[in-house]
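hey can u run this one w/ 4'-deoxy-4'-aminopyridoxal-5'-phosphate bound, need the structure tokens asap thx
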Amino acid sequence: MSESRVAFFDGRLMPLKDANVNIATHAFNYGTGVFEGLRAYWNQDQEELYIVQAHPHFARLLRSARVLHIEVPYTVEELVSHTVDMLRANEFRQDVYIRPLAYKAEAAIKVGLSGLKDAFSMFAVPMGDYVPTKGIRVAVSSWRRIADNMIPSRAKVTGAYINAALSSDQARADGYDEAIMLGEDGHVSEASSANLFMVRGGVLVTPPVTADILEGVTRQVVFDLASELNVPVEVRAIDRTELYSAEELFLCGTGVQLAGVVSVDRRAVGDGQPGPITTAIQKKYYDICHGVSDTGRRYVTPVYHP
Ligand code: PMP
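ok here u go:
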């Protein structure tokens, strides 16, 4: 941890090294927090740092918080503004990952959600690619994706990431880059921390929001980009073995960005290279993130020259 890094904690900017919580904190004991993951990309030519999809990410944070009865004392606008201030205070001139957290802060032994003090905090760290984006090999996990009636899958709950950790850990130990998780009904849900799209018959297909997915911010951008490219999109349940006969497959998410999948359970996807639709969407996505897409301005918030 860099000594000079600045976090947002207790309603103000302060050194990250001093932004600590007590071991009796409810969220530490029970996983009762919700969080977000945003990226900001550095554009050297423009000397600008662009936060990608700041508003949708913070809107989702507030929706997640509502599920867990967590009060966040800020509006989406205020959260974006605190993020800009924090990134400026850090003087970042590189790609970074931003982690806001809203959580049950009470020092209490009590299983429950109500009547407990809440807190909000945020920090950012430099981050490059999280998985290779040029072609990853995935496996269908023996771990099932959490179901909405067990731990709400559309809320980004800290404790729920045990499910993602188990599946991605298993996939990596077995020599794969990522895990695909099936829902309780046996249909494809998503990857351990990314949504999934496949191309079949020239149509881009992704599971519906009722398939226990996290309703991804990047997934929504992919819908827009597919429409710009005149690629038809279908939202429907996907069978496991459809993945074996897909022409193309990719994962999307803030962390993984847009990652083409070249094999599933050791069966090549298409000709074993990221396909043309994946590559075209990927290029458009990266242009948006780096602030070089005129039509993509609405997706980014500039940090230094608003
Ligand atoms: N699913 C899960 C389980 C995730 O953790 C993420 C990453 N936040 C995603 C999907 C992709 O969501 P987004 O595009 O909003 O980052």
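The two ends are 29 Å apart (CA to CA). anyway lmk if its weird
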